[in-house]
From TrEMBL:
It comes from Streptomyces daliensis. InterPro entries: PknG_TPR (IPR031636), TPR-like_helical_dom_sf (IPR011990). Gene3D superfamilies: Tetratricopeptide repeat domain (1.25.40.10). Pfam families: PknG_TPR (PF16918). This is Protein kinase G tetratricopeptide repeat containing domain-containing protein. It comes from the Bacteria. Residues 8-55 form the Protein kinase G tetratricopeptide repeat containing domain.
Amino acid sequence: GAGAGQLGTLLGSPLDEEGLRFGLERSYRLLARLAQSGTERIELVERANRFRPRTWV
């Protein structure tokens, strides 16, 4: 079973905010590569960017 603090995974991503954001970003980028039109591709990339986890330099 899962230990304390472990929430499991969903489609290969940890079930926490960061893991789900990475998973959504990855999924939107995959869909963008498969998009039929440039407009659709741009919208999907913009969605991926919105879900991308915040990183600090």
